[in-house]
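Hi R.,

Here's the chain you asked about this morning:
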Amino acid sequence: MKFGWITMLFCFPIVAGASGAGIEPWGEVPKNVQVRFSPDSRGVVRVSGDRPTILAPNVAIRLTSPDEIENKPFDRDGGAVVYLEPNGGSGLRVVREVKWVRREAVFRKVPADIPEAVGRVYPYFKVESSRRFIYDDQGRIESVILDDSGGRSQVQFCALYDAAGRVAVATSTDNNPVSFDHDFNCETLRGTPSLSMTEYFQYGNDGALKRKLSKSLVQPGQSQESGAGAEDRAVEDGSWRGYGELYYVNGSNGVGYDSLVFGMSDARGIEYFETTNFSVASSDVTPVFAHRSQEASHKLRYTFTGERVPPDLAKGLLEGVVGYARVRQYYHSTGQRVFEVFAPGAKYPRERQWRTLDLNRQENYDAKGPAPSSRT
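And the predicted structure, written out as tokens:
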């Protein structure tokens, strides 16, 4: 493969005795690899943010297309060199992106092992960092690894797939580190989330997306929770928190599916649920709740305030919710917003609040009914 020289469009001062600081460029470029220059050093190659959804469960994670990477000279401050290799078919894929920055002074002598493709820029620029793009045996992007000028490496992105080739795990594309561990393997994400937000996708036998969960590790010393008492709950290494959606069939809403939005943490399990479908948690129906608003914009929310609530409660669409301390919020058919506080195992609330813009009413209950402390 023949690479033509790209004309430099600027003047550069020549100073003897310059240092060659910085990591060296890729020393052995395979003959079947193409090299393209870019004046953009902020990340020419990007990982797509597309992820599976209930309507499009088979979304593939892609990189910037080689067709979008133009071959242009560096500017006076440097740029990027992108390496493209055959993708196993008739096209190309990105294998490496190297960021070059301007040297403080010209480095007169170019080492013999510097590839010809970058030999003409080497005296004026040095390598600041390099990103490697790793693919699995099916040609799907698996990880992105950043090597910096200090010789340190960090994984910036991971993607894992299930047996059917669908995305099972994917980290954030914001270039935050997934791990600083030199021996980190993306496969560990199947069981433990990363420093970066990690998304998990589960599918049904029909191929439809059934569950999506996003979670990230909580840094040591950082509380998993906020509010009163949070400082008393220790956070251990490996603790995480996150949020997600559980999808299920609902043929009566004109869409064909519905979802529960939930928040979770390692310490507390499920922390809250939110949905617009009031048919869930049928075991927790009370006479007042039976007259709830049916407007589509009004949501039902459960917040759990006591012991840890296992994640399996979501799979059962809140069946068994009666067993836990909880606060239920919903709109009544009268337009008032209702807050009900339940003790673990209680079928009826021990406290109920009715709220409007200009009126708040609280009702307290004991085993015999309304308590004397009920007030408006």
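Helices lie at 116-119, 312-315.

Let me know if you need anything else.
M.
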